[in-house]
Amino acid sequence: MTxxxxxxxxxxxxxTDFVVKRALEKAQEFGVETEYISLRGKKIKNCxxxxxxxxxxxxxxxxxxxxxxxxxxxxxxGYIIGSPVYTYNPTxxxxxxxxxxxxxxxxxxxxxxxxxxxxxxxxxxxxxxQEMTINCLINCFLAREIMVIGGSMGNYSGGKVWTDNxxxxxxxxxxxxxxxxxxxxxxxxxxxLLLRDKR
Length: 199
Ligand SMILES: Cc1cc2nc3c(=O)[nH]c(=O)nc-3n(C[C@H](O)[C@H](O)[C@H](O)COP(=O)(O)O)c2cc1C
Known about the structure:
Rossmann fold
């Protein structure tokens, strides 16, 4: 079965968790299986560029939560990754996460060929850097050989949510933002289903 993994990069259970789950619910309507992981409380150390992964080609030497999360990541066919906007950027959690995926090219269940990913950003201010944050997440997908899925016509780069600094309640009030989220969920599901047989 085609599987979409949703990841929230928020350190708290508020708007980003809520909208990533909303996108996954929409994806399920199109016949994909979904799984959800929050990075909250997970131990994901920064990559220290020791190059163990490049020399040994067996994965990362650091023993933390990235071990099992990487396995889940490699199993999935598509991704919906959501991050709060922090200072016009994604959270440090998700940047560490993508850096720590550096060894994925060497791992047995190779990787990301024909895998798809879509991004969601959640900001407290209406134009507080949602697009910058999405672009950054898109670049992370590209760096890991994941094909980027954006929104349908008019929705541009993906899910963009404004919380008015009210967390989940604020996100629930952002009708257009939620539409951009479900639109992305649908498109990631459809693209993953289309490309499933290519892998
Ligand atoms: C350190 C920090 C930096 C932030 N920077 C921005 C920002 O640049 N732009 C913005 O719109 N919101 C910013 N916010 C607000 C959050 O994006 C907003 O509260 C969002 O809802 C957080 O996602 P969450 O509800 O899933 O935790 C920042 C919040 C924190 C804690």
